[in-house]
Structure to design on (672 residues):
């Protein structure tokens, strides 16, 4: 019999059945429905943090900070469009719909991107006058649902983005839950107020790359071959998807990793379908290079871009620009600690709030509630976004100058090493301190 | 009447000339010869003109049409009148898949048959098919009316919202949440008007049609309906 003085082991949590997993099992058992949330993958993934720049030393020399020029501009859509886009910074705001976001948030995104010299993008639900009026350069998304799609807005756009998929849910459609379907959202989508709005996962009038080529031709004919056409894919098989997008006639390919956010998707989808952006960029660039189209068809990458180092690393791996969504919302005020009490009242906390599908966002961003939405001042929020974008670019320039580059696009894989074997294999750069690239040269 | 021979003129030149027309243009009747199945013919029009196309067309003929009347004197490929906003598109032969897909307005008349996904995600367009339609037609159809004088294939109106479907012949099967509904006087009046607009004045009895629409059980997600999603 055990003596009361016998030392006892500590209670031990299972690594497999950790507290989050247990809570999810209990939630599923109580409700009978999968968990739907916003945002991107929250798990630990191989990411840009696993890469380091080497910087200049004796073998190559750096550029003087503040004195010597390090350019940041990018042309998008130079392949076929008669009116390609020229951005001052290689950062675009990703497509987010009016419906998932408030009109104030859409306006703030337009204001911020315009101040900083980037572009912004519509979403599933059409173009609002607010975002058109406040966005100097606006990309109009062409989605499977075609909610709000019309030729007048198509002609008003500066570019067209044909959305095949997104990183949070490659192969998945969408669902805007009824509580976010205000009268205005419903009217724009031609659906009854208050019902769930399903967004299809496949386009209604084409299947496969041969049809896509004809579809892109149609969009070009309608807009008189003026506008760049982007093709957006979620990162899954980037080599083949990028090659097929190029074959189909894309001017620009947008590649979104699994860290890319969503307005509302099943947790299981977000966390278990698709690959991290770190693993996707090199195969995408390889496809462009194999076709002789690198820099001719531009590559925009997204999914977990947070700071200027991430921007610089993405460009060094061969991207022409990056796109941000989640970080832009945070810059506007999403998940701000000032709303801590309200987040807790909703069962969450600042920094963890991801019930973007609920429409009860205390920050007034992912909501259609007029009282909550009014909390977001589009002018002030737009300024915050512009400031943040400026910092992203300054940080990327700091790194580029240290590597001796007079343009962000001159960054290259040679400037990088990896901290982990996984990152070395995915980014196809050597493990730091070695010349070993796992999987390359038969090693 | 301007005549454009596509054996001599490129599609780009044709569409460009049509796009350049002013709202009050005198050139209101165009004839297009030798279309030879080219894609995106007369796409993106936005003027009150009539375009007669003398032959078969490829994909997306009259795509995103506004105001114009486009007549195809032959068969049409995939996505004829896709996302049409207003105006009329009349196909005198058969139409391939996704005819009238996502169209917001206007009238699409198909004298022959239409293939799969006719009226998919339709958003206000009226479609009259004098022959039969293929499977998965009116999938996620949001609003507008689809009139079929012949038969409908499998899964008609799957996940339908508020569009109205009228079929005179057999429906092979109905899709999720699509049910037969009563044909009341308001529906008979709508049907009569659409048949008249399609040039079938009095030739067809509206009483011979059945109406189908949404049971609205999938409008808000409920786990007990999970198998239907």
């Amino acid at each position: 019999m055990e003596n009361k003085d016998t030392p006892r082991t500590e209670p031990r949590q299972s690594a497999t059945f950790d507290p989050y997993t247990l809570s999810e099992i209990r939630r599923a058992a109580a409700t009978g429905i999968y968990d739907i949330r916003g945002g991107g993958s929250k798990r630990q993934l191989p990411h840009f943090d696993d890469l380091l720049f080497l910087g200049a030393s004796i073998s190559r020399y750096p550029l003087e900070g503040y004195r010597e020029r390090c350019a940041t501009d990018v042309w998008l859509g130079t392949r076929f469009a008669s009116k390609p886009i020229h951005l001052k910074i290689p950062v675009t705001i990703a497509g987010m719909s009016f419906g998932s976001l408030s009109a104030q948030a859409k306006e703030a995104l337009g204001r911020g991107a315009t101040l900083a010299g980037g572009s912004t993008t519509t979403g599933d639900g059409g173009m609002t006058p607010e975002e058109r009026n406040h966005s100097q350069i606006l990309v109009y998304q062409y989605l499977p649902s075609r909610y709000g799609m019309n030729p007048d807005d198509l002609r008003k756009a500066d570019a067209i983005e044909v959305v095949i998929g997104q990183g949070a849910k490659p192969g998945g459609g969408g669902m805007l839950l009824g509580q976010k379907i205000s009268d205005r959202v419903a009217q724009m989508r031609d659906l009854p107020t208050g019902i769930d709005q399903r967004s299809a996962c496949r386009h209604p009038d084409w299947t496969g790359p041969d049809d896509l080529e004809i579809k892109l031709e149609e969009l070009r004919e309608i807009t008189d071959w003026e506008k760049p056409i982007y093709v957006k894919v979620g990162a899954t098989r980037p080599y083949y998807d990028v090659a097929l997008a190029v074959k189909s006639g894309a001017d620009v390919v947008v590649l979104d990793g699994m860290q890319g956010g969503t307005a509302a998707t099943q947790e299981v989808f977000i966390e278990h379908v698709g690959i991290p952006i770190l693993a996707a960029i090199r195969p995408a660039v390889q496809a462009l290079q194999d076709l002789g189209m690198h820099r001719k068809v531009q590559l925009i990458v997204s999914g977990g871009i947070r700071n200027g180092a991430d921007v610089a690393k993405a460009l060094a791996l061969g991207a022409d620009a990056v796109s941000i969504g989640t970080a832009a919302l945070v810059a506007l005020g999403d998940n701000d600690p000032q709303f801590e009490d309200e987040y807790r009242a909703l069962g969450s906390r600042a920094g963890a709030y991801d019930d973007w599908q609920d429409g009860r966002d205390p920050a007034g961003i992912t909501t259609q509630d007029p009282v909550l939405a009014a909390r977001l001042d589009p002018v002030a929020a737009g300024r915050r976004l512009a400031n943040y974008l400026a910092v992203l670019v300054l940080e990327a320039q700091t790194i580029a100058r240290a590597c001796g580059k007079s343009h962000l696009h001159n960054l290259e894989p040679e400037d990088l090493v990896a901290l982990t074997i996984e990152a070395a294999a995915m980014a196809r750069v050597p493990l730091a301190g070695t010349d070993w690239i796992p999987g390359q040269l038969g090693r | 009447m301007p005549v454009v021979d596509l054996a001599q003129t490129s599609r780009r030149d044709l569409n460009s000339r049509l796009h350049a027309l002013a709202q009050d243009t005198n050139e209101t009747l165009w004839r297009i010869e030798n279309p030879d199945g080219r894609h995106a013919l007369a796409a993106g029009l936005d003027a009150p003109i009539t375009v007669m196309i003398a032959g078969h067309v490829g994909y997306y003929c009259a795509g995103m049409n506004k105001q114009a009347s486009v007549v195809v004197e032959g068969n049409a490929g995939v996505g004829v009148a896709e996302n049409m906003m207003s105006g009329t598109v009349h196909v005198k032969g058969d139409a391939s898949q996704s005819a009238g897909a996502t169209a917001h307005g206007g009238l699409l008349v198909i004298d022959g048959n239409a293939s799969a996904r006719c009226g998919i995600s339709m958003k206000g367009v009226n479609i009259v098919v004098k022959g039969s339609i293929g499977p998965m037609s009116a999938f996620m159809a949001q609003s507008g009316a689809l009139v079929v004088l012949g038969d409908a294939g499998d899964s008609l109106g799957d996940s339908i919202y508020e569009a109205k479907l009228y079929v005179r012949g057999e429906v092979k099967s109905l899709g999720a949440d699509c049910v037969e509904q009563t044909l009341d006087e308001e529906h008979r009046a709508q049907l009569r008007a659409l048949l008249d607009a399609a040039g079938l004045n009095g030739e067809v009895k509206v009483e011979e049609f059945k109406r189908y629409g949404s049971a609205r059980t999938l409008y808000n997600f409920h786990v007990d309906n999970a198998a239907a999603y």
Remarks:
- The radius of gyration of chain B is 18 Å.
- The helical segments of chain B are 11-19, 185-197.
- The mean pLDDT of chain B is 96.
- The CA atoms of residues 5 and 33 of chain B lie 5 Å apart.
